[in-house]
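*** Query protein ***
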Amino acid sequence: MNEPSHEQSIGAGSCSPSVLYASPTSSEGRAHTNEPQVYDALLLVGFGGPEGQADVLPFLRNVTRGRGIPDERLEEVAVHYRHFGGVSPINEHNRQLREALEAEMRARGIGIPVYWGNRNWDPLLSDTVREAADDGRSRLLALATSAYSSYSSCRQYREDLAAAVSDAGLRDRVIIDKVGQYFDVPGLIIAFAEGVAEAVRGFEERGTTGGSVRVLFSTHSIPEADADRSGPSELGLGRGGAYVAQHRAVAERIMRDLRDAGAVEPSTQWELVFQSRSGPPSQPWLEPDICDRIAELPREGVAAVAIVPLGFLSDHMEVLWDLDEEAMAAAEAAGLLGSRTPTPGIHPAFVASLVDLVEERMRGLPASARLRCTELGPWYDVCRPECCANARRGFAPAVAGITP
């Protein structure tokens, strides 16, 4: 664990920052809040997914709204959902996660309810915020099911929260803070490391060890321009911004812990790869693609690949289709042994770390006392003004960050 490397605040002499719908301590704009705060509900914020064949196209229209994509093109993606009966695993996972969070919070004596709302499908976030307010819950702490920094994985959720308050007509009635990005909490590292260790152990039982095993940490590809703008520019993280730096730091920590524990051999190599690209060919997205990379590995003496869905907290459709179907098929075509490791889901250590995040904010725990596993953490409680900019859309109103 480590001390924070970027404890920052608004510079002396600056005007008071504008942080939309924030609690008093968050409205000051400090990178990390260090005063106790009262919240009367936890708001679990998800992406959402269809739960039947009739939901698939309406769901995809919600995901792509404003982009003018015709239904014919959406059907090309819909076949992935239809392959699984039109049901995404996301909503069921969030139901399980909500129950697990409630149980862990009760065990710790945290007596607030957990509400759940989605960006793209029922229960929609604006309906959930209205429900909480109708129940008398007006001081909400939001926890998004996304651990890394980028427009789509952080800022867009903050915009969704601001829109939900506005759409529900609750601008003067509701306070919303958001838990910062939590890519390097101990429970996430533990959950992924256990999966890698089990995969490598399975390869060893089949006679494949050391340098002939490659660990591929996979995450969603995003446009290079969005990656470069992820996180605050003042950190100077270079190409790929915080999005790439955070994934690399987590993968490196997982492998270091496994080597130290003797669970993988020192010669076992790892790489960060990308999946699920959806943009036009003319637009640069993060590479290498996982399937392209798998096809190259036999020429490098690799005989087995452990595929780790590092960018996903649960079994999204991108995990079930792009990894379990396409990437595993690519491994078979290349003559490689393949194993896809589990997502954290409701692993007890991961759930415990999520509740730790809630307690940090409620207790006003200083950044120096928060448990994180890379030098990049703890990440910001209040995002910096231009953090995770979207070059095409500009800045919409967003909670939990200083207004640009």
In short: The CA atoms of residues 195 and 341 lie 5 Å apart. The two ends are 32 Å apart (CA to CA).
